[in-house]
Amino acid sequence: MPVKTTCPYCGVGCGVVADRDADGKVTVSGDREHPANFGRLCSKGSALAETIGLEGRLLAPLMNGQPATWDDALDHVAGQFARIIREHGPDAVAFYVSGQLLTEDYYVVNKLSKGFVGTANIDTNSRLCMASSVVGHKRAFGSDTVPGCYEDLEQADLLVLVGSNSAWCHPILHQRMLAAKEKNPACRIVVIDPRRTATCEGADLHLPLRAGSDVMLFNGLLAYLAGNNVIDRDFVGNVTSGVADALAQVAGQTVARTAGACGLTEGTLELFFDWFARTERVVTLYSQGVNQSTSGVDKVNAIINCHLLTGRIGRPGMGPFSLTGQPNAMGGREVGGLANQLAAHMDLENAAHRDIVQRFWRAPVMAEKGGLKAVDMFDAIADGRIKAVWIMSTNPVVSLPDADRVRAALDACELVVVSDCMRHTDTTRHAHVLLPALAWGEKDGTVTNSERRISRQRPFLPPPGEARADWRIVCDVARRMGYAGFDYAAAAEVFREHAELSGFENGGRRDFDISALATCDDQAYEALEPVQWPVTRDAPSGTARMFETPHFFTPDHKARFVAVKPRAARNATSRDYPLVLNTGRVRDQWHTMTRTGKTARLLSHIFEPYAEFHPEDARMAGVKHDGLARLTSPWGKMIARVVVTSEQRRGCVFVPMHWNEEFAGAGRVNALVNPAVDPLSGQPESKHTPVKADPFRPK
Ligand code: SF4
């Protein structure tokens, strides 16, 4: 029987139909009825069947590398967590989780951490993906709300892609944009990115701005719009606040000054400003080039300011649009899976919200302040403040910045528990206890994509070996620690509890509300169709677009302009480190390659780590196309194949983030990446590390 499920890779959240024949052979195809992809799949999605073999899987618990029974492993984890909490307090333990987890997994581990252990030291690799957008949304709208939907991209006359190589990183959405442009000759696409990426191929204009100058550019646009009277005065006057401060911040910022600061020609910049000013239906999409910055939150608000000034939000074909990187980055936000959030979009630092959640969970304690965000969490592990960490479905030894320090931190940690579906990753190597988790195709639950659409991940394979669902492993440990409230029989029960909590009144801030799903029985959960939240009694089929009635979630229900001041990246280039390292993804690999690295088809696209140099930078560094270069930053080093291309902006080097230590000892690019973070979001600056390059000749 074909099973409808959801792709486990990017935040587009495409529907997949998986079919398993009598011999157990699985084929996958795009789900024609899924509103994210209407049957299409990209290269990664269409290769899913090649990644589900059991080679490399973790199939039974291990303790110190030796096979163990589930009972022994769980008793050990629960006993050691309880002892460390008793001796050192709840903040001596931490959970580092993942946007790969299903919402049900995320909900349960967040409940255990904040409501029962009593620590907010739970953070997620989604911190690396969209934390800046969360804070930007909350500053502007009073809630973490993505206003629009994918259909808006097809209704727009101008699509502005900022810091987003959507052709490679959100391929199906990119194909939808190109198809819409094909149908609508008036539609233009503008790409704002220091690199000339594959996304530029279908674009009308590429602005190769100076790395990190996005705030300057959107402040310049705000000044241009105001100067040319492109202002929706009713909207600004009636439903926003703070416009005077925002405009005062950009007063006198001319096109010439903006172009100079952004390293662009005046004519090109003015063309973009003019298109933006003249086009009513504009969607501005942004991704990691905006978020992964020490000014990430300000960049988000600089973009949103331009949409507020023109009133272009909450209507078809317009609005700011944050593209999430991971399949369930959005679901993690719903359940409060970040160190500074509570469940159901409630605030950890709001006593009334804490009270609601604590009563609902019948929790003995409740964390009262934000916990340590990802980078700070691993610093606290390194210096011994955190003595036990449980890492779920993620590989921080490859993916976090200053990755050698992360590795050293795990080496020094008293107890490292890793639950994962893979036996050998750079992170599992450091685990004292390894707990086998289910993988895609075996898991049962929900994920939420970039347009707030909740979709089911359904199992079509039997659980292999002794692997268990992540939510069940968490419950097994929680019960052994003596906590009540972790007796769920199935993922559907977790989902109903999560949905019920979302319906509680939280001071007029019911942006995330799926309470209409709280009464779904097991059959209805099984059959749940993709649906966009909020899903309420008034909107039982979900909500495509937010703020159609411009009623925001701030106390006065007005959207906020935020006056943002351009700031330089935290670590500047120097004579010793003259190049800016920018990291990102390639088309056919996902994260640290634990799944996509299994298929020859996907590896044939790009099979080794490479560094893209501008020809002049390559000449200065003495590195040659197809040769090898050693890249060094103050934090670490690696070896990469040299690609010399004029598509790279002068002064910048691009290196993909996927490859791990095992690849010919080349090293991980995140070992070089500086651990500087945005002061508000804690999101690392993965796009701006000063590095140097020199030729490398193997001995
Ligand atoms: Fe999967 Fe993203 Fe490709 Fe869709 S676009 S098939 S969600 S990787």
From TrEMBL:
Cofactor(s) the protein needs: [4Fe-4S] cluster; Mo-bis(molybdopterin guanine dinucleotide)
Keyword Iron (UniProt): yes
Keywords carried by this UniProt record: 4Fe-4S, Iron, Iron-sulfur, Metal-binding, Molybdenum, Nitrate assimilation, Oxidoreductase
Lineage: Bacteria, Pseudomonadati, Pseudomonadota, Alphaproteobacteria, Hyphomicrobiales
Organism from which the protein derives: Bradyrhizobium jicamae
Family: Belongs to the prokaryotic molybdopterin-containing oxidoreductase family. NasA/NapA/NarB subfamily.
Source taxon at top rank: Bacteria
Domain (4Fe-4S Mo/W bis-MGD-type) ranges: 1-56
Protein name: Molybdopterin-dependent oxidoreductase
